[in-house]
Write a structure and sequence with these properties.
Structural class: alpha/beta
Largest sheet: 5 strands, parallel
Number of domains: 1
Order of helices and strands: EHEHEHEHEH
Strand order of the largest sheet: 2-1-3-4-5
Distance between the termini: 10 Å
Radius of gyration: 13 Å
Helix content: 40-55%
Number of strands: 5
CATH topology: Rossmann fold
Number of helices: 5
Shape: globular
Strand content: 15-25%
CATH superfamily: Response regulator
CATH architecture: 3-Layer(aba) Sandwich
C-alpha cells in the first residue's frame, strides 16, 4: 500500500485529488490530508509517507519550503508540487513531479502510476 499525503489549504482541492486517486487506485493507496505545511511536516514525522502532493501556496509555510526541509532531512518521499504559478528551475530540482493548476486528472494518475 502506498501512503499519500495531500497538502492544500483549500479543502475542495484536497477532496478532488483524493477522489481522483481513490477512484483509480482503490485499495492500493491510503490518503492522508493536511491543510498547511506544518501539519504536513508533523504527519510525515509520524507516518510512513511515500508520496507528498503539495500546493505551493500554503497559509503558514510555502510548499517549496516544505520540499526544501524534506530534501535537507534526506526524506525518500516522492514530491508532487501542484501550483497555480510558474516556478524557477531551483524549485523544480526539489520535486519529482510538477503540475500546473488547473491540472488534468489523467496527468495526475499517470504521475502516480510511475511509482507503482
Amino acid at each position: 500500500m502506498i501512503n499519500i499525503l495531500v497538502t492544500d489549504d483549500e479543502k475542495f482541492s484536497r477532496l478532488l485529488i483524493k477522489e481522483i486517486l481513490e477512484e483509480e487506485f482503490e485499495e492500493k493507496i491510503k490518503i492522508l490530508e493536511a491543510e498547511n505545511g506544518h501539519k504536513a511536516l508533523d504527519i510525515i514525522q509520524n507516518e510512513n509517507i511515500d508520496v507528498l502532493i503539495i500546493d505551493s501556496k500554503l497559509p503558514d509555510i510555502l510548499g517549496e519550503n516544505v520540499c526544501k526541509i524534506l530534501r535537507e532531512e534526506n526524506k525518500k518521499i516522492k514530491i508532487f508540487l501542484i501550483t497555480g504559478i510558474k516556478h524557477d528551475n531551483n524549485i523544480l530540482e526539489l520535486v519529482d513531479f510538477y503540475m500546473q493548476k488547473p491540472f488534468n486528472d489523467e496527468a495526475l494518475i499517470d504521475a502516480i502510476k510511475t511509482i507503482f
